[in-house]
Specification:
The complex is a heterodimer of chains A (about 250) and B (about 400).
Chain A lengths: L4 H5 L9 H16 L23 E5 L7 H20 L26 H11 L4 E6 L3 E6 L5 E4 L5 E6 L2 E8 L2 E8 L3 E9 L5 E10 L5 E10 L6 E5 L5 E5 L5
Antiparallel strand pairs in A: 1-2, 1-10, 2-3, 3-4, 5-6, 6-7, 7-8, 8-9, 9-10, 11-12
Helix pairs in contact in A: 3-4
Chain B lengths: L2 H24 L34 E4 L2 E2 L12 H24 L6 E4 L8 E10 L3 E10 L4 E10 L27 H16 L3 H19 L1 H4 L3 E3 L5 E3 L8 H56 L11 H39 L10 H22 L1
Parallel strand pairs in B: 1-3, 1-4, 2-4
Antiparallel strand pairs in B: 4-5, 5-6, 7-8
The chains are: A alpha+beta (about 250), B alpha/beta (about 400).
Amino acid sequence: MTYSVAMTHNVFSFFPFKPLAHAGFTTLFLLCLGANSYAQDDLPLLDLDTPVRLNFSGSWEKDFARSDNWEDELNRVMRMRQEQAAAQAAGIRPLSRPRVSIGNINLGSSRGRSGIVNLARVAEYISRQTTMEIIQDRNQVRIERKGEAPLICGMETGPTQTFSSPHGSEFCGWNRLQLIFEITLPEELYITHQFSVAANGSSLQIVTSIQSDNGIPFNLRQTYSKYDAPPDEYNCIQTISRGRVCSQRTPLD
Amino acid sequence: MNYSDLIIRLLKSCVFGFQALALATCIQDAPSPIEPTIPPVGTVSLDYSTEILTEPFLLDIGIRVFENKLEEESTPGYGGLEFATIRENEIQYLPYVLRNTLISANQWGAVRVLPQDDPSMDLLLSGAVLRSDGQELQIHIKVQDSAGREWLNKKYADVTIDEDFPESTRYTPGNRFDPNSFTDPFQDLYNKINNDLVAARTRLSEQELLNIGLVSQMVYAADLSPSSFEHTLYTNAGGQISLVSLPAKDDPMMARVQDMRVRHYLFIDTVDEYYQALYEDMQPSYVIWRRYSYDQITQNEAALQEAYDISRYSSSTGYLTLIQRYDRFRWSKIYEVEFRELASGFNREIAPAILELNKQVHGLSGTMEEQYIQWRRILRQLFTLESNSL
């Protein structure tokens, strides 16, 4: 995987305002006006204020065959760095890449930065869940993973701060069809999750990127497949005076 | 990395930098209590009257449902809707705690909670909640008499300590909430408001107090029928109202005004009962909610001190250090999400009581405030009809 850090951090761009799309929306709007006489039916109206988002909802399980193995990915990165160092020694140096010194291919920690090995291990730790549940409606998307607080994001395009504490902060936003969460931890440790779903809704990809102190990021790609989770037998709500109260689901729930 | 990325990164670094700097200074000393912007009232005993007071001292007080002036920035990030709903509900709850305090002081006439300003009251008390959580309550209180004289215009604050939330406030199925044995954690604040009102009353002569009663009677009459009674009052440039003349004691119009006023009292007593029902329904959940809020704030303060203790945040960039950094973030977020769920649970639990408050009174419709406006309009129409039929 060769995602660049510039890409992972340039994530909260607005939808491009394309003339074609604009014309399409205008036509749609005029059609709606023309069809005013049919406005009494039960068809849902297109809410132009709410951006259209792909549907991420469902139960997802990790597809190990199509996901990066963190050790393999680490080896690949190390090999690339070695090749780059060797090419540099031979006098071939791509303009856009940082200089790599022979004997030190920046795999370990350097000037306070975390080494790529440590970042790779952290990426593996925070991507350890094999299943997740995503609930999505018109207002928000909520990603539930075992052992983690849910990742929740609204449908607005711009970056929104979803959490902040002395231990770190979290922003979310949409980059076209991708859902992005960026976590900033103390001492300049950045974690980014990019969610994208296949057009047919059958698979989901998460790219987790970890970067320390503007060093080399480590990216881990995980692919998930949709599966039919058995429905919850109980319907639970949190109350203040009786704690968590559960009732058995009825067919109407 | 382009410029916008760089700016975002720099801004984030600055936020952390400032937090770290501010907190690094804090951790030099022992944990310091919060510094309220308004001095807390401290421990205040209620100025209770052991005597039965006579008429001019027994002024009727109307307490308007408080305004919500809580700062926007106090809304905790995404999902702040739950907390905003709690605030909307507590501005209807807190006036009732004050109402109960004023009644228990035995210093006043009828004390009622009202959805709007009421022209029949001798004293009108309005309040704005500036801050409210388990640790601190700040309220701005204004009190005016019917003659437009300002009695109070003051900000009050009270802070809680562990002792305000004894173990008995951890309610479980085996330890049910008992309202009779419960003292509000901010009771000192309400006591202080009562005592300040008593002090303000002491500064007035008996004649001035009598005058307040007469003015409120004529203000109510003028509200019912401006054409008949407005000439009896004079309002100066400062908004102060004085009596120009009084109708004769056997004036038939005044007799009808009194009749209307009695009906009006019956209505506002009913309104007050609705607020009482809300208070009683909401109290057990609200007490527990406040306790959770207090615990959460206390834990957050402890976390703040821990988070930027540099010795705890090792400069090591090893795997375990990075995991520790991530886990601290992870747990702090899990706690906040749980707290937000509790807020939702609280709102869910008191929703029926809020619905009950706004249900129809005497065939009126809309919210309690709308019903109140309708009622006053009906009384005016009734008064006009009766006057014309004579």
